[in-house]
Amino acid sequence: MDYLQQLIDRYPSLSPIIMDINSAFEIIKDSYKNNGKLLIAGNGGSASDAEHITGELMKSFIKKRNLPDSFITNIKNVDSEISDYLLSRLQPGLPAIALCGHSSLNTACINDIDGNITFAQQVYGYGKEGDVFFGISTSGNSKNILYAAAVAKAKKLKVIGLTGENGGKLKQFSDVCICVPETETYKIQELHLPVYHTLCMMIENYFFNGDFF
Length: 213
Hints:
Elements (H helix, E strand, L loop, with lengths): L2 H8 L7 H16 L4 E4 L3 H14 L10 H10 L1 H8 L8 E3 L4 H10 L5 H9 L5 E5 L6 H12 L3 E6 L6 H4 L2 E4 L5 H24 L5
Parallel strand pairs: 1-2, 1-3, 3-4, 4-5
Helix pairs in contact: 2-10, 3-10, 4-5, 7-8
């Protein structure tokens, strides 16, 4: 299914950035193929978007996800009664972490160090070469996102930016920056959702259409 074409049919204004969306897909796909993970961060509404993306990747989104045979065998060997429950409900997930969700760590950083360092601290702690940092900022200039992107580059993670029309400074730190064609915050956010939904559908389709795992 051509999810990109569906996106453009519904949101024609996104046509100029279609290649950037596809490039972001390729980066995330390659990371997952090599046992990488996705680290996602944003502020305010973009923090909700980070959590939203995590939810779509860590469980079934629009496709059925079959557990691998090796896991089925292993869990049955642990406990047959528990395994029956788990095998009827458990869904394979693609590893994604919304960095805005760790309240104890985040508030400790705010209290002990500097609130702008929280995402950078997490990228430093979680990130490894081959992972992807996905920074969401409508302006492209949010300091905590820029600091996290800089740490990601230093640790040899790939960086994807999701921003408004001009991309801000985040654009220069990004391997690919998806700059939706709006300048007002709420209008930018309205276009961010269909963009990342499309990315999630493309990723899920790639890995679970033919039981990749």
